[in-house]
Amino acid sequence: MVDLSFYRKVQESIDGCIKCGLCLTICPTFEVLKGGQFGGPRYLSAELQRHLMEFGKIAYDASYLCTICRHCEFVCPGNVATPAATLFLRQVLSELKLSAKPASDVNEGLKGMLEHGNPYFISSEMKGEWLEEIDGVAGGKAEIIGWVGCTSSIRLPELAQAFYQSLKKACGNDFTVLGSEEWCCGKPAFLLGGKDTAVKLASESINRIKKTGAKTLVTPCPACLSAFKYEYKEWYGLEPPTPKVLHYSEFVKELLDKGAISFRNVAGELPEKIIYHDPCELGRGLGIYDEPREVLEAIPGILVLEYDDKRENSKCCGGGGGMFGVYSDLSMAIAARKLKEALKMGAKALVSSCPACMLNFKYAAINYEIPIEVLDLSQVVEKAVSQKS
Amino acid sequence: METDVLVIGKGIAGVVAAANLAKSGKKVSIIARGYGATALSSGCLDVLSYIPQVQGIAQPPLSGFKMLAITNNNHPYIIAGEGDAGKAEEIVSEAFANLPEEIKELYVGSLESNFYVITGFGTLKPTTFVQKPLEPAIIGDEPKKILLTGINGLLDFNPVMATSVAALDLKKRSLGHIKVKAAKVSVKGVEGIPTLTTSTIASVLGEKEAFNDFKSELSKIAKSEEPDVILLPSIFTTPELVKSIEELENACGCKIGEVAMAPPNAAGLRIQRVLNNICEKMGIKTYQIMNVTPVIKDGRVEKVIGEQTVLFGKTKELEFKADNFILATGDFISEGLVCEVDEELNRTFKESVFNLPLYIPSEYFATLDPFNPSGQPFSKIGVMVNSNMKPVDHNGKVVYDNLYAAGSILGYYDYRAEKSGMGVAITTAYKAAKSILGR
Amino acid sequence: MSNERFDVIVIGGGATGTATVRDLAMRGAKVLLVEREDIGGGGGATGRCHGMLHSGGRYAVKDPESAKECAHENKVLRKIARHIVEPLGGFFVSIPPDPPEFADAFVDGCKKTGVEFHEMSVEEAFKEEPNLNPNVQRVFWVNDGAIDPWKLCVLYSLDAARYGAVIKNYTEVIDLLFDGKTVEGVKVYDKIHGRIEEYKADMVVNAAGAWVGEIASMAGLHIPITPNKGTMVVIQKRVLNHVINRLRRPSDGDIIMPHHTTSIIGTTSINVDDPDKSYPTKPEIVKMYKAAVEIAPIIRHTRILRAFAAPRPLIGGGASGREISRTFRVFDHEATEGVEGFITIGGGKMCTSRLMAEKLTDVVTKKLGIKANCRTHIEPLPGAEEEVSIEELARKYGLYNALVSRTVHRWGSLVNEFLPATQKTPELKSIVCTCEMVTAAEIKYALEKTWAIGVKDLRRRCRLSAGTCQGQTCSYRAAALIHEFTKRPVEKVLEDFAEALRGRWLGNREVLFEHQLRQASLLLSIYNALGNFDRLFGM
Predict the structure, then answer these.
(1) In a mutagenesis test of the B interface, which of C419, C509, C534 is the best target, namely the one with the most B β-carbons within 10 Å?
(2) Which of C368, C399, C430 is the last residue of a domain?
(3) Chain centroid to CA C346
(4) Residue A22 is nearest to which of B204, B263, B314, comparing CB atoms?
(5) pLDDT of residue A9
(6) I need a surface site. Which of B429, C330, C437, C446 has the fewest CB within 10 A?
(7) To probe the interface with C, which of B41, B117, B121 has the most C CB atoms within 10 Å?
(8) Which of C368, C398, C432 is the endpoint of a domain?
(9) Range of the domain at A322
């Protein structure tokens, strides 16, 4: 059933497009595809301004080419929310159950998410392997729950481990994780148009989190954060799982200000020049630009570089909006551009604070043979709070 | 957030105001919802080219102020000059002299004279300053052979049409010493692209191989045509690409530049990038904020509250307190002004943040001919200000004691008919800053 | 050219004239069509109608003859013009205060005239049309559809040309030629080449729509024609999936018509003295708008693009426009006034044009001794012959799905006439009109093969500038391509470009507000602030 009130909001927003074309100058997909396969946000607007549903049926390929980076929305003179319109299109497509790719692949993916509790078709027991590897303990009751997220726990165990260890060190028994009991926040399903799937996943996640009795949830994943903190309420009619929901960088900044952690000099143990990449979901999505920087600046022994296009002008890595699952080649091609730029600026490592960015950057670096280390903020922090080895 | 001054809008008016204040030691922040007309700029910086209903170009631009003071003494230039044409000329000169260095470095030209520049349409447009890459497109007194060189697939600059139109326009204006000819080049890797834009071409040319191919194609044409100038579409988006123009010039043995094009183009991106850099360099924090509502206390603006949104939801509500506020949100294009209709299709106009009283011309709304050189009445709709750039009501009374306005949000003038947009933006922004600084 | 002799000359390139040329040519006559402006764009009813493929339901009660004709032709056009017809279906809805008795009269009328219909439950109707006014009381389904009237005229002409007909647009009849009392030809002014020509024929057919009276007066004859203005308002999007009619006696603002990417609201009915002076006025526009909002309240949240008006050619003077029959009449001037070689057809509707042409051609061919049967109801129009696969074409030529979909919706299988050229010349894939998705290849084809000369003609062929930006992005691009492809002199091209934008503006002016005002501001910034066209054209 099409959500009519969402439809109306999308239509009203899209009507503001006056075909100025500014969106085409910064859309990551448009840039990499060069306007060949995809006409950019303006193309989506041109269709959606006329008849929404028909377009979805025809242009199912274009509908999944958006990374939901919201950069177009942020430069648009009319503040047209094209990413939201894309989401709506995907919901329509999901209902239609098209047999054409990639819509059919997406629907398969949604089924898998519901069954396994993650978007990677991995059985949920394996979600705790990263914790077992470091002899960590999951469950029980604690004030603070660390929500690792599917991407970190399954695809980036080094991130999950760094996240866990750094916070365990600072918070001790006040801090716990769910390990293999962690379910999926539902965001990937939501991003790919499967709102019903997302709501089901969300409800289960909330239940499991509530069992810990935690009052604060900390996550290294901006997508999960946004889901818990805002989308659950705004879109699913569910309350956030804990009264306080924070990104890892926000929480570490708090600890730093309180004096609950301190950083040692890591010179020689980490690449000297590290460039920070603003994840779209964290920056444009949640307005969190300062905390990751303040945390990094507080670590002696590293030099933090900045892209020219930073903060709300930050260019998308290409891994968001579910695109890494649908068109991973395209995601990595988009990421490669930022990696090459980082190299040109003299950076030896790229650090972001988002598992989706890290996953995409990591594999792009391998595929494109770009000699740059890809790190998450948690790994840098973990180094700075650990003993010198 | 608390600052001395909060500027709303990050186009040229907003940033020039903020920069002038920051230069004098004030703590300034900018909130904005997105880009506006500045990012859509063609690369020209208009001060005053025409006075509506008057034939001929204002030459030099400031010489038109005497006529303006007579025909339209509510014009923002004249208001900024406290009603006096001479003072208006002074304040404009002062405003330009006090532009941030980065903006000065981007443009060539002077207040001493207007000149013609060739547009992507082939028409000649009189303007006062152009961005450096457009310098070769300026029509001067020396004879020139200009090769209008389009890129295959980029429809916004059709050299065949532009050449024919330019020849016509040059003839009409008795500029026979300028000769124009058409040429076309291909850029490898963008063949057959349905939506080819200048930024795509720019990103392709960022790769060494494609750039070298382009360079050799251009130099082949240059060798056979021997032009004095080659004009390309607006493709030099980044500072690196702008630097590479010199390499192209060396290969071709002639000057290479851009025509003044419609958006989206490199010129708009260049000026917006410069504005963003100015903010960063001067420690002016910028925030992306939507749905701004003011909180008024005792006839003053106490603070404004804005939202950061997540896909139609609300995330943070942020408060911005300041001693003074500058409104530089633009006109209808960027929704600084909005026009609503009721069920009977009767229009009401609103200024979208403070709901300030607006000047609305009493004549008809739009002329029959979109090409009427006197302009459109609706283009004159906007906020009324006193000589300190403080918004006033229809009785001339200041609305809020600590609120200022600058740029195309102002009423009483049609920047499209006059070709005066950025000049007014810079001057009124400077005047607003000056008023706040108490000078 | 002046020495060429024809069997028949048809005056008027609207639906009637072009359908007639097709029928005559198919039956073997040597035909010339002269039209003072563009095919389907003469300023008359065809170029500015709803584009409705009537089921006949609208006339079932008050104009049964019309209803019967519409019901019949509806089926024919769905076959022969399959590719430019959208078989949407139509709803007749009753919303208070519509008189409930009218529904009974409607049912009765449909039964008597053979108009297909059935009643739907309101719940069923809302499932298919969620945007309908929630107060709808009764709903009847009919076989209404949407058809592109400009395209219909072009396809009629293309088919006629296949059979040897000569098509001349921008050729205005300035006088008839006589041999005694017999009309033996026409004297025309060729606007493109700026010269006067004369053409002779055994029969001159006056199919000039609202101007039949003017043409007939050149022979000293009087046709009782009442030009009657209908104003329509264009909304920028589809808000409904069917054609929606009000279930009441036909009155103002009864219809919302999906038309390509827009919805057309209409219409009014006001007698005018001069058919060339049919302008949409603000009170009419407001009336249409309010009527439409009554049918679909969501229209309050859409962009109004423009308003337009055109003169209907109603036969018979004196009575109010809605009472005069919309059926047509053939005036055999030899029989009635003793003027040989001249015949007039008056009245009619776009959707019965083929039938009108058939009846007229029967009369003409009889007079000329041509013995051939009408086949216009059987032969498919160009582009309707075969189905094309949008996805296959998109893949083959490397174009976006939605772009190909729109193009196929405009041309049917005729796309195979111009898409292949993109393989040899890839830059023809460039999109000229971003709102309506029109490629340079399509523009080139329209210019070379369908008598399109200027930007306005391209709008009728390809929908260029018919979108939300109203020509901002595409008009100059198109003008440049016209200059480049056809080598038309730049002064003429610039004049044509200016007229095209002026034409858009006249339709936009009264409805500039909200986002459309923002759009107009950007358009003026581009063409005046940057392009300086206001001073170039003003010089």
Answers:
(1) C534
(2) C368
(3) 17
(4) B263
(5) 86
(6) C330
(7) B121
(8) C368
(9) 273-385
- Residue pair C512/B365 in contact by the 8 Å Cβ criterion: yes
Q: Supply the pLDDT for residue C319.
A: 47
Examine residue C51 and state whether it is found in any structural domain, yes or no: no
Judged by a CB distance cut-off of 8 A, whether residue A128 touches chain C is no
- Using an 8 Å CB-CB cutoff, list chain A residues near C261: 50-51
As given in the structure block, the two tokens for residue C43 are 């300023």
Low pLDDT (below 50) residues in chain A: none
* Judgement on whether residues C510 and C421 belong to the same structural domain of the protein: yes
Query: Which residues in chain A have Cβ-Cβ distances shorter than 8 Å to C398?
Result: 36
Would you state the structure tokens that stand for residue B150, as one six-digit string?
């389009």
Q: Which of A100, A133, A168 is the endpoint of a domain? A: A100
Query: Residue A108 falls within a domain, yes or no?
Result: no
pLDDT at A389: 58
**Amino acid in position B171:** K
pLDDT of residue A48: 84
How far is the C-alpha of A3 from the C-alpha of C355, rounded, in Å?
46
Residue in the structure block whose two tokens are 């909005």: B338
Segments forming the whole domain that contains residue C529: 390-538
Reported pTM: 0.95
Range in B330-339, B419-428, C47-56 the model is least confident about: C47-56
CA distance C222 to C217: 6
Break chain B down into helix, strand, coil percent, rounded to 5.
35, 25, 40
Question: HEC states along chain A?
Answer: CCCHHHHHHHHHHHCCCCCCCHHHHCCHHHHHHCCCCCCHHHHHHHHHCCCHHHHHHHCHHHHCCCCCCCHHHHHCCCCCCHHHHHHHHHHHHHHHCCCCCCHHHHHHHHHHHHHHCCCCCCCHHHHHHHHHHCCCCCCCCCCEEECCCHHHHHHCHHHHHHHHHHHHHHHHHHEEECHHHCCCCCHHHHHCCCHHHHHHHHHHHHHHHHCCCCCEEEECCHHHHHHHHHHHHHHHCCCCCCCEEEEHHHHHHHHHHHCCCCCCCCECCECCEEEECCCCCCCCCCCCCHHHHHHHHCCCCCEEEECCCCHHHCCCCCCCCCHHHHCHHHHHHHHHHHHHHHHHCCCCEEEECCHHHHHHHHHHHHHCCCCCEEEEHHHHHHHHHCCCC
Segments of chain C with pLDDT less than 70: 1-3, 317-326, 538-539
pLDDT for C74: 94
Q: What is the pLDDT of residues B364-389, one digit of tens each?
A: 889 999 999 999 999 999 999 999 99
d(CA C19, CA C25): 10
User: Distance between CA A148 and CA A136 in Å, rounded?
Assistant: 13
- Residue B193 and residue C431: Cα distance in Å, rounded? 9
CB contact under 8 A, C469 and A18: yes
Q: How far apart are CA A352 and CA B178, in angstroms?
A: 54
Q: ipTM of the assembly?
A: 0.97
* pLDDT (0 to 100) of residue A319: 95
pLDDT at residue number A388: 65
B2-100+282-436 placed in CATH 3.50.50.60: yes
Q: Decide if C472 touches A, using CB distance below 8 A.
A: yes
End-to-end CA distance of chain A, in Å? 58
Please say if the pLDDT value at position B236 is more than 50. Answer: yes
Element (H, E) at C343: strand C342-347
Residues of A in contact with C400 (CB under 8 A): 37-39, 43, 59, 62
Substitution target from C532, C533, C537, C539 for chain B, most B beta carbons within 10 A: C532
Tell me the DSSP string of C404-423.
HHHHHHHHGGGGGGTTTHHH
Give CATH for domain B111-262.
3.40.50
Q: How far is C327 from chain A (nearest CA, A)?
A: 34
Model pLDDT, residue C322? 53
